[in-house]
Amino acid sequence: MTKVENTVNEKGYRLDAVAYTAQVEKTDLQDKTYIGPSVVTMSVAPSWVLNHGGLSNVKIVRLADDRTSQLLETQFSGIDTSINMVFTGTSPDGLSMFTLISVASQEVTVAPTAPPLVSLKSLGTSASSVILIPTLLLFVGFLVFLRRK
């Protein structure tokens, strides 16, 4: 899938997942090398689309016989009779192998980091006083609560 990844990266995306690849066989055609512009229709389960970023993240890639690839203009076309989501892509260079993929932004999200831990020594206090003070305050609060009853 390196060719697909490179093509997707060149367009400002990164490859998220591959749904499947379909090979279109060119049989009984007078000119098997060039057919002309074609419309490719591919469908996939709605759960796959939802799990991979939604409608706008689904794309079709054409893998040509000469090992080049191109990201096709891809549109959501509706739902088929099997309740699959249908996508169409216009292939200006004809038929070949096509891959239905999902893409994501090239931006890498970085998880926030926790603040650094502060050692008790650097605070100039001991572990026993750090534990004792909150415990003492809790005990005093409990006594006040009992006394009010």
3D architecture notes:
The chain is an alpha+beta fold. It has 2 domains: 2-105, no CATH class; 120-149. It is 25% helix and 34% strand. The chain has helices spanning 2-10, 46-51, 127-148, and strands at 13-23, 38-44, 58-63, 69-79, 85-91, 97-105. The model has no long low-confidence stretch (mean pLDDT 80).
Quick structural gist:
The chain contains 3 helices and 6 strands; from the N terminus they run αββαββββα. It has 149 residues and is of the alpha+beta class.
Query: Cα distance, first to last residue?
Result: 73 Å
What is the N-to-C order of secondary-structure elements (H for helix, E for strand)? HEEHEEEEH
Look at the structure and give the mean pLDDT: 80
Provide the helix percentage: 10-25%
% residues in beta strands: 25-35%
User: How does the helix and strand content classify structurally?
Assistant: alpha+beta
How many β-strands, per DSSP? 6
Oligomer kind: single chain
Strand order of the largest sheet: 1-6-3-4-5-2
Name the overall outline. Answer: elongated
Q: Please indicate the count of domains.
A: 2
Notable characteristics:
alpha+beta; 149 residues; 2 domains; single chain; 6-stranded antiparallel β-sheet
Topology:
Layout: H1 2-10, E1 13-23, E2 38-44, H2 46-51, E3 58-63, E4 69-79, E5 85-91, E6 97-105, H3 127-148
Antiparallel strand pairs: 1-6, 2-5, 3-4, 3-6, 4-5
